[in-house]
Amino acid sequence: MNNKIVFFDIDGTLLDHDKRIPASTKKAVKQLQENGVHVAIATGRAPFMFEDIRKELNIHNYVSFNGQYVVFEDEVIYKNPLPGDKLHEFTQFANEINMPLVYLNEKEMKANVPDHPFVSESMGSLFFDYPLYEPNFYQNQEIYQTLLFCEAGKEQQFIHDYPQFHFIRWHAYSMDIIPNGGSKAKGIERFIERLGFKHDQVYAFGDGLNDIEMISEVGTGIVMGNGHEKLKQVGKYVTKDVGQDGILHGLQWAGLL
After folding, report:
1. Are 245 and 22 in contact (CB under 8 A)?
2. What is the pTM (predicted TM-score) of this model?
3. Which of 9, 11, 176, 207 is catalytic?
4. Which of the four CATH numbers 3.50.50.60, 3.40.50.1000, 3.40.50.720, 3.40.50.300 does domain 5-79+182-253 have?
């Protein structure tokens, strides 16, 4: 087995603008695996949200929930749920100001309001249906990520009141809430510890703001051509757009294919 590992973000990286995996990406990932390189996913999504992608690409390693739930060869090696007491406190606050929440564990997600246009639009952008309504879902199990739905900028009024949480905007109407200090980079550190790798053996591809820590801290961080401008400033290399064989091009540039 080659002592290298490549982490791929999903949306805008493995998936193109139509939420499909380009043929060149499928071929490149298969070639990596045949070359003995470890292949992993690093995403803000919950595990149940990308099970089909893992099956299609035969991937058994992943960092999910932006680093809060890490799996190596189908075995959970790290988990870091949101603190239950603070989540309860925040839920009460969000209810008072009429901002909906969606709670996620590794298997499913539930909404605390039965219907809201911000939830519909945000989840629809990922091709997911409106979550089932179960407002007390968070009280019964570990929650690794919560989605907050509000217009951009509105969160500035209160996020500083919750230092235990890290807020990451991913949609005009939605933000991820994860434990403060959590990131894809932290999840990747668990892989490095488990495999005994050095940072220069670790590669990552990403396109969004939640990829900044990952791209800047791995040995070789590669940013998609369609990536956020802030992310391009911290990457080692900017490859082509996801729709223009960006992953294949980036892997070739890195000498992995």
Report:
1. yes
2. 0.89
3. 9
4. 3.40.50.1000
